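Trying the structure run again after the queue cleared.
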Amino acid sequence: MTDHITHHILSVLVENKAGVLARVSGLFARRGFNIISLAVAPTEDERFSRITIAVDVASVPLEQITKQLFKLISVVKITELDPREAVERELLLVTVDAPAASRGQIIELVNVFEGRILNVGHERLTLSLEGHPDKLDDFAELLRPYGIAELQRTGRVALAKLDNSSTRLRPVRAS
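Done. Tokens:
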């Protein structure tokens, strides 16, 4: 994977209220910011949702994005996650043409990528793969020659990598 950053990842904690996602996405649309990926779901605290937004670096300076987001009343916290310091994941579902002659090759590809076969038909397979967006891009590209009937991706979710710099463990005293 390259060290060249092509996108910003923003983790935006918002109040879990109707219309918040529409206001956030509307802000991006009005400003002409290019969103690469958008995912939203409730957090561990039901009062809040987390919106993970991957934005094209060339599209707009990060400061401008965060200033505009903070103007929205429902935004509680914005965290930028450096792609080199974040764990990013995405889910891909794909239905691929899989006649008997090529089915074995497709199944082998699924195994190599550690994917799953979700549904089996006479001439098609529905597959899933979870992982870094680059991994999903590679998988989809390798499936293309077989014939992709349908493909859907969830959008990126991301969290900061844990700090493992201090690996000392404190001894536990026996009572």
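The beta strands are 7-15, 35-42, 48-56, 75-81, 86-97, 116-120, 124-131, 148-153, 157-160. Worth checking whether this holds up in the mutant runs.
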